[in-house]
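Structure first, sequence second, as always.
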């Protein structure tokens, strides 16, 4: 049952974000904001595919443990692409509200992203073992969580100042995604059921994509 349900969910998720991303990127002529929103969605989908496709194969085959290397590599790729996702989301925030950030803020975002990616390359993560390093899962997610907090604050404050409901929704979606993700990082290896929180975490990212796509469709209908 788990194999069937996860396969259906992951397939629907990947198909949705990839199709919506492609549509936005392909049809956003003269609208760089939606082009980059599409690229962000594709980054999300393609990155997660490196982990979810091996997971589907493992669940419908010989089990997760026998596919540890492929799953670990997928997690490694996803860790990097999710960092890129937030860098694009940061750029979208600047484009949406026509903001020019100072050097300090820019350095903080890029510095945290660089640190996060660098930490992912350390062999101590034990990516290719069935049970990776719980300690290094926390280390590499500290700068990632800080990036998330910054994004929540930026999108929410700009949403309030500009009476932008969708910006506040994006901030809420980011908050929810980290709210579901952090317990997984901390306790999933101890209590496997906590890993189920990755489903609502994933849906929070789908919500972000749908927010962008909904705005894109509205703009397209006004042409």
């Amino acid at each position: 049952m788990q194999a069937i349900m996860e396969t259906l969910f992951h397939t629907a998720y990947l198909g949705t974000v990839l199709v919506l991303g492609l549509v936005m990127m392909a049809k956003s002529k003269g609208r760089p904001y939606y082009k980059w929103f599409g690229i962000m969605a594709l980054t999300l989908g393609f990155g997660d595919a490196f982990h979810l496709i091996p997971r589907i194969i493992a669940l419908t085959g010989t089990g997760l443990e026998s596919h540890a290397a492929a799953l670990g590599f997928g997690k490694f790729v996803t860790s990097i692409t999710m960092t890129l996702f937030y860098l694009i989301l940061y750029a979208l925030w600047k484009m949406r509200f026509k903001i020019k950030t100072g050097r300090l803020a820019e350095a903080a975002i890029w510095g945290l992203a660089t640190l996060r990616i660098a930490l992912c390359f350390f062999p101590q993560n034990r990516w290719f073992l069935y049970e990776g390093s719980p300690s290094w899962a926390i280390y590499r997610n500290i700068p990632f969580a800080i990036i998330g907090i910054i994004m929540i604050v930026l999108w929410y404050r700009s949403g309030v100042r500009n009476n932008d409901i969708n910006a506040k929704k994006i901030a809420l979606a980011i908050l929810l995604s980290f709210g579901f993700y952090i317990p997984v990082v901390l306790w999933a290896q101890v209590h496997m059921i906590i890993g189920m929180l990755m489903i609502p975490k994933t849906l929070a990212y789908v919500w972000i994509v749908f927010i962008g796509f909904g705005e894109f469709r509205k703009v397209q209908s006004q042409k």
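Margin note: The two ends are 46 Å apart (CA to CA).
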